Amino acid sequence: MDHVPVAVGDLEQARADFEKLGFVLKPGRPHTDSIRNVHVKFRDGTEIELITASAPLDALSAEYIDWLKAGDGPAFWSLYNPDLQDLTERLSKMGLSPNNEGHVVTFPQSVFAHRLFFAERLWSPTDQPEYFAHPNTAYRLEAVWLAGAAKERDLVLSLGGDRRTAFTCAPFSPHVEVLTSPNGDEIMFISEQSGKSPERSILGVTVMVRSLDAVHMILAKNNIHDTKVDGCSRNSIWVEPADAHGLWIEFRR
């Protein structure tokens, strides 16, 4: 994984709500296109990004504004790739019209994989230790959960991913198709749409933590309900989208 941008209408409220989930948020940098953001950062370079836009000053800000008409929620998902030039050449041969922007490779809106982009791992000199010291003990973005994304699944497979079917402890589906990317990332594909529109195929993320007790204490303190799947032996709990701006979050130890 690289990161998942979650579009939010009220950035300040979203920041406060993610702090109640036990995350530390790093302020974003100024953008000239009206975009503002904050980051949940992890030491391995993965992150959850909360992002908003106030005016359609370019294509990206206009897309975020249009996306938010249907409410908050994860708008894109990103995979790490160490060689974007080689990746661009491979994707071009597939006829996918990739756009290599230097540090990221994106797809035009006309391509089925538009919600997916690839990124280099960028380390910022402003990433201070306190930004990684999450009270909920989170230390890595482990996986993304998708519904009705068969073409994206096939794309990841064509790039060298491995596939297996597994029982999983998710509140929205007991069986998923798990893909492991060449970099070891987990991508969970659910065949049905789970009640979401086809555009909103990103259901949630898995965040690794060192202590579920710490997560429980923080959620209880802030009156946030957590969900544990009945019959599940895995050490994980879930926070519902209503408490995370449209994003299911699995805290897994």
Automatic annotation (TrEMBL):
Residues 1-151 form the Glyoxalase-like domain. InterPro entries: Glyas_Bleomycin-R_OHBP_Dase, Glyoxalase-like_dom. Gene3D superfamilies: 2,3-Dihydroxybiphenyl 1,2-Dioxygenase, domain 1 (3.10.180.10). It comes from the Bacteria. Signal peptide: none annotated. This is Glyoxalase-like domain-containing protein.
